[in-house]
Known about the structure:
The protein is of the alpha/beta class.
Amino acid sequence: MTALLGHDEPWREFRAAMAGSRMHHAWLLTGPTGVGKAQFALAAAAERVAAPGVQQPEPNQHPDILILTRLPASTDDEKKREDGKPYATKRSISVDQVRAMQRRLTTRPTLGANRAIVIDSVDDLEKSAVNALLKSLEEPPAGSMFLLVSHRPGGLLPTVRSRCRPLRFQPLSDDDVAHVVRREAPEAKHEAVAGAIAAAKGSPGAALAFLANDLAAIRRELLGIVDQGDPDFSRRGALAMAIGARPDRERLLACVELARNICAESAAKAPRQRQAGLIEAHSRLTRFGAEIPYANFDPGLAVVEIGGLLAAAAAPKEGR
Length: 320
């Protein structure tokens, strides 16, 4: 398992709870996308289920760690996953997956006294799956612990949040992000790595997505729109060319995340009269990004939406 960096405070809190007399049965792991919440969940699950003197498999192969995530979208994608290639996933985690997990919880753990359930992410549960999960959170089987990864906890049902102990994750330092990028993408050029770190805002996952999706040109166009506006739509045209004619969902999501980070960074430095527009653009980009994995969308219109939101928040204001 890849070594984790940072997150000393979540580890301190989790391990203090493990050492106490009563371990909470459900944890809600929240924070920015790509900072390592899912990796933490797997590592924490491994610590929870480990039995003294018993050889432990890797977390993703452990019989007492149940992992729920979006499944491959088709049989072809299943084959790609088996071959270690990129693959498309279904839009959500289904109620059938949750019910299969619940059936496992009626049996005894295999290697010890405890079992852990990792859901990555709980944001992806379809509505009926959320309702099914609530039953387990309300009446957890003895020895079972849930680790729910969430990038958008505000969108979860209050009944889910109220049954979980929150564990908040902060962005990593630029040095830690650089360490992860150099470890995972050693072939990347120095200039590309520097751009990825600047764009990632403490998220190693975002930095790696920046490199994988070749976002340097896209970042340049987005910054140009925010800084100078786009009254004649020329920058939006350049943005569309940089993104490409047929971007996949992963590339579009990486663009939305990049645009959100640019809005947040610009708002932090902007004069007061500009901040409201940038904050509004950030909020709308967040909602738009949440829709992309599930909705049928036209890539061209998605690019127009991203560029339009930034242009509306740009300085100087268009038309002035």
